[in-house]
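Supplementary Methods. Inverse-folding protocol.

Structures were first reduced to a discrete structure-token string of length 76. This string, shown here, constituted the complete conditioning input.
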């Protein structure tokens, strides 16, 4: 189970969504389910997903960190 910071990047326009999670694999599945269901909480990300299609996006894990560190990142 990976805990840390990740991005979702749109290769067509270069936009990046940055997130932090306690479980990267589970979070990716959650994002994909919402995006494919057209119910994602981030309207701009959802709009780009609908416009450009799933093939233009990738998920990348950037940084491992302890759960306690994730809380600190959220406070900055």
């Amino acid at each position: 189970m990976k805990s840390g910071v990740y991005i979702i990047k749109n290769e067509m326009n270069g936009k990046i969504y940055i997130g932090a999670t306690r479980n990267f694999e589970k979070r990716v599945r959650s994002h994909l389910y919402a995006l494919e269901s057209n119910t994602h909480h981030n309207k701009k990300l959802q709009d780009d997903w609908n416009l450009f299609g799933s093939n233009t996006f990738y998920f990348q894990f950037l940084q491992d960190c302890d759960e306690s560190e994730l809380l600190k990142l959220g406070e900055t």
